[in-house]
Amino acid sequence: MANIVIIEYINGDTLDINEYCSDWCAREDPNYQGWYGCVEADGVCENCGKTLNEMRVAREGAYGCGDVSCESCYKDVLDRIERIQRVDAEIEGRVNG
């Protein structure tokens, strides 16, 4: 699954769509306006160049392209883990607090 960034004309009409292997790669786009993921795509990541179709077939359910050498995907996974830990700590604080 891919993340996309929609590029719009000033009137809101869609001009183009950039496809990325992960939210981390999508954040590099100057038009990024927030997470827009879980989109099926067959192009290549605009940031790291990974083939999105191969990513989906080889790593169904993985974050990003799943390639441990891809720095963008590695950072995306770390970011997700940090967010999960932060939410877990908030929930635990409410339960025990």
- Element string (H = helix, E = strand): EEHHH
> Gap between N and C termini, in Å?
39 Å
Query: Looking across the biggest beta sheet, what order are the strands in?
Result: 1-2
Number of beta-strand segments:
2
The overall pLDDT, averaged over residues, is 76
> How would you describe the oligomerization state of the chains in this entry?
single chain
Largest sheet: 2 strands, antiparallel
Rg computed from alpha carbons, rounded to a whole number of angstroms: 16 Å
Q: What is the helical fraction, as a range of percent?
A: 25-40%
Q: How many helices does DSSP assign? A: 3
Strand content: 5-15%
Low-confidence stretches: 55-63
Main structural class: alpha+beta
Shape: extended
Question: What does this molecule look like?
Answer:
The chain is of the alpha+beta class. Helices cover 38% and strands 13% of the residues. It contains three helices and two strands, in the order ββααα. It has helices at 23-26, 52-58, 71-96; strands spanning 3-8, 14-20. Strands 1-2 form a two-stranded antiparallel sheet. A hairpin with a 5-residue loop joins strand 1 and strand 2 (14-20). The longest helix has 26 residues, at 71-96. The relative contact order is 0.17. Residues 55-63 have low confidence and may be disordered.
Give the key terms:
97 residues, alpha+beta, two-stranded antiparallel sheet, 3 helices, 2 strands
What is the element layout, followed by pairings?
Layout: E1 3-8, E2 14-20, H1 23-26, H2 52-58, H3 71-96
Antiparallel strand pairs: 1-2
Q: What's a quick, concise take on this entry?
A:
By secondary structure, the chain is of the alpha+beta class. It has helices spanning 23-26, 52-58, 71-96; strands spanning 3-8, 14-20.
